[in-house]
Design goal:
This protein is an alpha/beta fold. The chain folds into two domains: 144 residues, ATPase, nucleotide binding domain (Nucleotidyltransferase, domain 5); 131 residues, ATPase, nucleotide binding domain (Nucleotidyltransferase, domain 5), CATH 3.30.420. It is built from nine helices and twelve strands. Helix 5 crosses helix 7.
């Protein structure tokens, strides 16, 4: 029985995943990097240190899970985006591990970007990679990008056509969460608090110019509300998510006016229940074919890389 391995060492999660020839997940091992309470991130050196410690533990579990399987290929994320100027030391930890494994196993090694990995995690649920271009939206702790993707022999040739001109949706959520004394990354906790708020919340307007939205002013507004007090945490979390959706809706309108009929929504922020529901309703209303990652696979994980390794070997 054959297995195909994917490795991703992102800013906040160490991930190793393996799939079979039908792209079914055989093992999915992840460990979120530790961030001290009250902090809003990690240095790159700390990320590399934690990934270096995490990878052997995860690899040992993967080996146990894959007993009886033969690894036929390895794929790894080696940079944030597929661009010459895109670099982040955190990915060196995963790349080094992947190169070592591929050399010792004498199997092919495929390299993709972290952004491709997220979109490929969505495509894994469809079981295929069509040659037709598609639109995508990538929402994560550091990214709010509206994308135009063209599948090619290296993965996905992605062009950014819009997004956030300042902070990302994930940063907005995390900064509000930390101000409310929630753990970092705060996405899960903000989602839970917002879901428990019983009242209606309008949110704030978000500006959009030439396909670029701005969240920084709204985040500053949220910080002032926290400092003044008097606004329940659940209401403020709900306000944050509704405000983010108002901005995302403008991005989607931009792509729809450009002819978007098919879209993939990826990235850790797309784990949020409210935003997933709003995205689905928007696409149904406008007749857009929407693909989301399977439950649990919007957050950072290596299933997209594993899928790419299996897809490449299938089509060699």
């Amino acid at each position: 029985m054959d297995a195909f391995l994917g490795i991703d060492t992102s800013c906040y999660t160490t991930s190793i995943c393996a799939v079979d020839r039908q792209f079914r997940v055989l093992t999915d091992q992840r460990r979120i990097l530790a961030v001290a309470m009250g902090k809003r991130g990690l240095s790159q050196s700390n990320m590399v240190y934690q990934h270096t410690r995490n990878l052997p533990d995860l690899a040992e579990q993967v080996c146990r899970d894959l007993a009886g399987y033969t690894v036929r290929a390895v794929a790894v994320t080696d940079q944030p985006r597929r661009r010459d100027d895109s670099y982040m030391p955190a990915f060196l930890a995963g790349l080094g591990c992947a190169r070592t494994l591929a050399a010792m196993l004498d199997v092919p090694l495929y390299r993709i970007s972290h952004q491709e990995n997220h979109l490929l995690a969505v495509l894994r649920t469809t079981g295929t990679i069509e040659r037709a271009p598609f639109y995508g939206i990538h929402l994560s702790g550091g990214t709010t990008d509206l994308l135009y993707a063209v599948p090619d022999d290296r993965g996905l040739d992605i062009t950014r056509i819009g997004g956030s001109a300042d902070i990302s949706a994930g940063q907005f959520i995390d900064r509000v969460g930390v101000a409310l004394h929630l753990p970092f990354p705060a996405g899960l906790y903000v989602d839970r608090a917002a879901a428990q708020w019983p009242g209606r919340v309008k949110g704030a307007a978000v500006s959009c110019h030439d396909g670029e939205i701005s969240f920084s002013g709204r985040e500053s507004e949220a910080q002032r509300l926290v400092s003044r007090g008097g606004v329940p945490a659940g209401e403020l979390c709900r306000w944050t998510l509704v405000t983010i959706w108002r901005g995302l809706e403008k991005l989607l309108d931009t792509a729809r006016n450009d002819g978007m009929a098919h879209m993939l929504a990826a990235g850790g922020v797309m784990s949020n229940g409210y935003l997933r529901r709003q995205m689905r309703q928007y696409c149904i209303h406008h007749g857009i074919c929407l693909h989301l990652a399977a439950d649990g696979y919007s957050a950072d994980n290596a299933s997209g890389a594993a899928f790419w390794a299996a897809w490449q070997e299938r089509n060699r």
